[in-house]
Design brief:
Radius of gyration: 23 Å
Helix content: 25-40%
Strand order of the largest sheet: 8-7-3-2-1-10-9
Oligomer: single chain
Strand content: 5-15%
Shape: globular
Length: 559
């Protein structure tokens, strides 16, 4: 960890979060720093680039910026392989640059959320390097999960546990022992039974909170605690990766996913969050069912958890209504607010994804270079805009991913030789990975990287990005950027309460509900025009071609 101590002076005034409940219905904008803006021209986005473009977020109307990892990393997994949880990667800046970013964000009224990666470190972390040097049985190895292998000479992995990225979750080291990595081999899992690990992350939470951070997004929040009692048990899921194995076990009993003991950690963290004024917010990334997700979102734990079921639901009125209902009930049971997300750094952008047939294999589409099936870009953008207005009308917090305000599609045809995501290599070139949603943003219609930086970007941008650039859409009536700005401005005025009332007599294929003060949202997910309900038209995701008619793949807000 960084040798720099936490500051002893009181933290500066936190002007961005006077309301301790600001997060309950906030709109949070996810920045993937390496792909947002490159200030120094080296092809990689950086913190100074983020600071320079914060005005874009303030003008957009979001409440907070969530920074994906900016910590020292060898980039084996896009920065989620962290070598020091309390410092900044020199390629992205330093702690002074981070301080300047926080100060400018707060000046603009934006909260700052940082990504916390507690399940694993980088193999370059000083702790792991020490563990490798120390050898079997050394205390340094207790910070991680090292075990002897099976077989006559220990040549077989200790268990059949599988990596999310493909293959065994165990990697052998030269002295014969094996270490656990639920993700890439460069990301050894920490042992959360070790008190030194727990103490170090308490220090990390205070380190960033003292620097004005308003909240934390907790990566893989459901994986920290493992059942390490001997003998380690197999799960019988060879060939089944990641969370797909979860439903095979009784809730809370899987050897490494969503164990009940993980909640002790988050209750401990809540005491730290609440020691600040206002309390620091947190949101869990936990790929678990609704009833289990509610546990992470309890007020005495993280307070909020991502709702990935909504993201995974097909473009179908009945299915979406059920997903929304379950999410609201889950949040209500936890005393939390619901969360909604359509895109992030791990999934195909929804402008493209929502046009794939129901049940389609996203990876098969990516492996085809986006050609099987071909996706109509205009139709995809139309549906994505409708989905966005629907999401922004729902009670709770909305998380938007950088570039979706521009309507960016997935870059599905990236050449394999430029791929950076470890999934590509880990799966033996069977899964293409997530690079297509991480291509750097276009700010201008020309230049070597469309305004991202002075030179070429670390991932190539397609020529079509020129038409999506911020400067092209800024002030252009009907553009996706202007729709987002209008929607967020209206949302701030209309928002009250955390409930909705369904319209029971909506036509088939139409999702309609009312919020407070007569604000109504109507989405036509059917294939035909339907009558537009009475009321003043506040906003439409696309122009209405006929008076009082609502065309397919269109959302309207009415008063």
């Amino acid at each position: 960890m960084s040798d720099q101590p936490a500051p002893q002076d009181p933290p500066p005034p936190d002007l961005s979060s006077r309301d301790p409940d600001w997060w309950r219905q906030a709109v949070v904008y996810q920045v993937y720093p390496r792909s947002f803006c490159d200030a120094d021209g080296d092809g990689l986005g950086d913190l100074r680039g983020v600071t320079q473009r914060l005005g874009h977020l303030a003008a957009l109307g979001v409440d907070a910026v969530w920074l994906s990892p900016f910590y020292p990393s060898e980039l084996a997994d896009g920065g989620y392989d962290v070598a020091d949880h309390r410092d900044v990667d020199p390629r992205l800046g330093d702690l002074d640059d981070f301080a300047a970013l926080v100060a400018e964000a707060h000046r603009l009224g934006l909260k700052v959320i940082v990504d916390l990666v507690p399940n694993h470190t980088s193999r370059l972390h000083p702790w792991f390097e020490e563990a490798l040097r120390a050898g079997p049985g050394a205390p340094a190895r207790d910070r991680y999960v090292f075990r002897d292998g099976k077989g006559e000479h220990g040549e077989l992995p200790p268990t059949d546990w599988q990596s999310v990225f493909g293959g065994s979750a165990w990697r052998r080291v030269p002295d014969g022992q094996w270490y656990l990595h639920l993700f890439a081999p460069e990301q050894p899992d920490l042992n959360w039974r070790c008190e030194e690990v727990r103490a170090d992350f308490r220090a990390t939470l205070r380190f960033w909170s003292d620097r004005g951070v308003d909240g934390f997004r907790v990566d893989v929040a459901h994986a920290l605690v493992k059942d390490l009692d001997e003998p380690l048990r197999d799960v019988g899921n060879v060939g089944v990766t990641g969370e797909d194995a979860l439903p095979r076990m009784a809730p809370g009993s899987h050897p490494y996913w969503d164990r009940d003991e993980v909640h002790e950690i988050y209750r401990d963290w809540r005491e730290i969050f609440d020691a600040y004024a206002p309390p620091r917010a947190a949101v869990a990334e936990a790929w678990v069912p609704d009833d289990r997700r509610a546990l992470y979102a309890r007020p005495d734990e993280l307070g909020q958890a991502f709702n990935f079921e909504y993201l995974q639901t097909d473009w179908d009125a009945d299915e979406l209504r059920r997903a929304v209902g379950r999410a609201l009930a889950s949040a209500r049971a936890a005393g939390a607010s619901a969360t909604w997300v359509l895109s992030n750094h791990d999934v195909v952008r929804h402008t493209s994804r929502l046009m794939l047939p129901p049940g389609a294999d996203d990876n098969a589409w990516l492996m085809s270079g986006g050609r099987a099936p071909a996706v109509d870009a205009a139709a995809g953008l139309r549906r994505a805009r409708a989905a966005t207005l629907l999401m922004l009308a729902l009670p709770g917090a909305a998380y938007v991913y950088q570039g979706e305000e521009l309507g960016l599609p997935e870059v599905a045809d990236l050449p394999v030789q430029v791929l950076q995501d470890p999934i590509w290599e880990q799966t033996g070139h069977v899964r293409k990975g997530r690079d297509g949603c991480r291509v750097p943003l276009p700010w201008t219609a020309d230049g070597p990287s469309y305004g991202f930086g002075a030179g070429a970007a670390w991932l190539p941008q397609p020529p079509s990005f020129a038409s999506y650039a911020v400067e092209v859409q800024d002030g252009t009536e009907g553009s996706t950027l202007e729709m987002y700005r209008t929607a967020l401005r209206l949302r701030r005025k209309l928002l009250a309460g955390e409930t909705l009332t369904w319209t029971e007599d909506a036509p088939p294929g139409v999702l309609a509900f009312a919020r407070s003060e007569g604000w109504r949202c109507v989405t036509n997910l059917s294939a035909t025009d339907v009558p537009l309900p009475p009321g003043e038209l506040l906003l439409s995701s696309t122009p209405l071609p006929a008076p009082r008619r609502l065309p397919p793949d269109t959302t309207v807000w009415l008063a």
